[in-house]
């Protein structure tokens, strides 16, 4: 069923009564709603991108969005479930597992998480110091390695992929900024992150202590994606980081989720303002280029928020029944 926007407001009666009603309606229409969005470490490209999209949405909707630095997707999902934030950066596997109570959310389902949209594809990076002697993933066995920022989607993906490949590093868990310092001063041999290349922290470390981004074999890609179907093969182009060749890795989608408790109007306005400003966002945040509402619907595997459904149906998209939330 296609959900229509409300009909235009019409006032009948005496002039004074009409003026009062119109004034009240105008004030309500202009009222702003303050909401928060949990993002990622400031050292990541995601923090910049989500700050930009929040600025654009705030300027073209009744929403005033405050951006909060967090550890990333997993922390955001947990905080969303606790009602500590209104919107959250999430990755595709995290959103699916949180809703269904699988994987890292086994027996801890967050059944009121609702998808809103996908922002961009994201790419896993696994990097080591060039002077470490590490050249393959197998060489990471027993080595002091940071699996990504604590609570981030990259940390979870790293653990799942390495389990699939039967690789067991000595995990050193810390924030992204601490991991960068630890690589530079030689306390760990490398670190990982799920983000948009080039990742600022990797570029900075590479200039101080040259890095090697590890490349997966076709067999490793096949093994990982068979066991983890929410991942797919991805490529980091040659020259993304100074003097580095093309690298084969894995990727997924990163987007925005909210709670079912957030109002339909708030999520509708967020979704509408985002897609109506996607070209402006793409000018400053290149990873969003080419993204469309249809991509968001086609690549979602857990229920959408009712406000997002309202927008997608309004622009003529067919939203599959399995993506309609229970409250609809």
Automatic annotation (TrEMBL):
It comes from the Bacteria. Gene3D superfamilies: Periplasmic binding protein-like II (3.40.190.10). This is TAXI family TRAP transporter solute-binding subunit. Keywords: Signal. InterPro entries: TRAP_TAXI (IPR011852). CDD domains: PBP2_TAXI_TRAP (cd13520). Pfam families: NMT1_3. Residues 1-31 form the signal peptide. The lineage of its organism: Bacteria, Pseudomonadati, Pseudomonadota, Gammaproteobacteria, Oceanospirillales.
